[in-house]
Design a protein that fits this description.
single chain, alpha+beta, Cytidine Deaminase, domain 2, 2 domains, six-stranded mixed sheet, four-stranded mixed sheet, 10 helices, zinc, Cyd/dCyd_deaminase_Zn-bd, Cytidine_deaminase-like
Amino acid sequence: MVIIDSKTEEYIYDSAKQTHGVLKTTVVSELISQLNCDKEQLQQALLPIAAKFAQAPISSFYVGAVVFDKITDSMYLGANLEFKRQALSLVVHAEQAAINNAWINGAQEITSIAINAAPCGFCRQFMNELNSAGTLSILLPNGRFTLNELLPCDFGPSDLGNGASLMSNVASDVDINLPISEALKQHLRQAYVPYTSNLSAAELVLKDGRAFYGRYAENAAYSPSLSPMSSVLSQLALSGIKLEDACVERITLVEKAGFENQKSVAQAVLTNLKGTVPLEHHVF
């Protein structure tokens, strides 16, 4: 078992806040050399750091997850995010957060995910939407498992006639004639929405100018789908900012006309932010 000393742990945590929980290939290589370990051992050693990003005002149960993408050769942290005074179904699970973080930041094929607690059925189903679901390794405190071992007799995209998958990164070429940022337009085009066709994404801009993005990621089982607003708030949390402390300048949600289904859930989770920030809602 690889142990990261407190000084190095604090350094990694501070660095991860700047990159929103992304550890690029150079950092991964340096840590592997410094700790004399392999990639999977490093993933597990990073779990306490990932869990530091958790915001769990309801459960006080702090979960961390770390995924590795073989195409970018990078690691992506994730942590659970709970919303006070809102339905438990709106919670972002650590596994969702890590996968969303990888997806938002250009990952293409996740080969392994380390978690500091066994994944719930909801998260197993969420992982089943990945393009690498058939080969994904799940690293737990008590061993290494395949997703098939943890989710036998599964229900997945193919059962609904969907030949696509999360992380396939096939962008829509739709024209978007709206007064929104080019970055938001790009995230909108990359939303994964094979079941409702509601291309949807969100942008959150802080008063200091920092911008965060989220996309809609649907799931064959429907309920485990990740909303664009939960996606962007998870990204905010991975910068080390508590929701109630965020100084937000602007929040924008964009959806496909005729398929809208995200405004009400977005307004629900936004009640956890500091003050009152009007939601800019656009359809195209």
